[in-house]
Task: inverse folding
């Protein structure tokens, strides 16, 4: 399917580039609906990539690229279940989202995340699956999960560890602070910083440049330099599930859900 | 040496320009969430603009509980 328009995202493939656009209010929180459509995208990717050399992931929401997991849905669904079933449901969600993230990570295309605004938690983890991150200068990156008593669960730590020095990973993870695009570029997370509103244009220009290269060679180079950190990804799921059942997490999630603030996990 | 008064004035000017509130309506002791009518998402946007304007890095946790322009300017001043 060369084009798709769903409830949370859409995609189109033209001129050798696949563009996947997230579009779910308020800021592309990843819940079951987005997960289902991402799974649909990944299942179509095998066919789409035959005529493509690049994939660009971006957001149509002015607030940002993606604010991460849909914690309100996670809390509601969790509360509606008998406590003995919660862990299984969380694990099932994580297994599914990891399959999606791994498929994008390993796609034989050069992948670009064109990001702006809020790129937090699962949103940062999605961007980290891509080969390049092109960021609008107003982008902010953050792993706020520790504020909720959790760790990132969509593959963020292993991918960040793959790409950056351990000290930078510790800073982002253990302080939970957000950093802006220029800082992210200085530590090696971001490939290019653009003017406000220009990330998608620059990502498209970059994708057009990639079209000049032999696809097989580019894929071989990517496979050589970007291995999937499989063992760490599996370990991350286990740690997340161990932490999830603690009362502190339920309290943190409840506080988040009860808040009317736009970003309740920030000061 | 940048004084706290100058830093506060620059913060007020930047907030006025970006959030389109007349400069004369902003006071150093104002609650910027109320005066500017912004939420935490927009406060994050303001933080990014301040970091870029002053060429500093200001961790968001340093702004925990900060709601007025003067204290915000003091946090910035400590990084200059």
Result:
């Amino acid at each position: 399917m060369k084009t798709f328009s769903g409830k949370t995202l859409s995609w189109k493939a033209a001129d050798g580039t696949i563009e996947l656009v997230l579009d779910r209010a308020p800021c592309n929180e990843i819940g079951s609906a987005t997960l289902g459509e991402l799974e649909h995208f990944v299942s179509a990717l095998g066919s789409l990539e035959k005529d493509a050399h690049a994939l660009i992931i971006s957001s149509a929401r002015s607030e940002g690229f993606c604010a991460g997991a849909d914690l309100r849905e996670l809390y509601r669904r969790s509360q509606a279940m008998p406590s003995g079933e919660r862990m299984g449901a969380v694990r099932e969600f994580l297994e599914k989202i990891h399959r999606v993230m791994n498929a994008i990570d390993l796609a034989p295309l050069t992948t670009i995340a064109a990001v702006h605004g809020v790129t937090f938690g699962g949103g940062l983890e999605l961007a980290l699956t891509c080969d390049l991150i092109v960021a609008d200068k107003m982008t902010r990156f953050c792993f706020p999960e520790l504020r909720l008593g959790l760790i990132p669960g969509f593959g963020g730590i292993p991918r960040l560890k793959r790409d950056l020095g351990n000290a930078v990973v510790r800073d982002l993870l253990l302080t939970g602070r957000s950093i802006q695009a220029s800082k992210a570029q200085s530590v090696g997370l971001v490939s290019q910083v653009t003017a406000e509103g220009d990330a998608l244009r620059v990502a498209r220009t970059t994708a057009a440049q990639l079209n000049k290269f032999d696809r097989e060679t580019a894929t071989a180079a990517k496979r050589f330099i970007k291995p999937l950190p499989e063992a760490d990804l599996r370990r991350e799921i286990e740690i997340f599930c161990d932490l999830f059942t603690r009362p502190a997490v339920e309290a943190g999630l409840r506080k988040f859900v009860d808040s009317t603030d736009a970003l309740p996990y920030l000061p | 040496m940048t004084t706290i008064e100058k830093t506060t004035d620059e913060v007020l000017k930047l907030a006025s320009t970006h959030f389109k509130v007349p400069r004369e309506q902003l006071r150093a002791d104002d609650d910027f969430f109320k005066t500017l009518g912004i939420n935490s998402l927009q406060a994050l946007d303001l933080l990014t603009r301040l970091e870029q304007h002053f060429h500093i890095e200001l961790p968001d946790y340093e702004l925990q509980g900060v709601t007025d322009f003067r204290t915000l300017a003091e946090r910035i001043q400590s990084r200059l």
About this structure: Chain A has a mean pLDDT of 92.
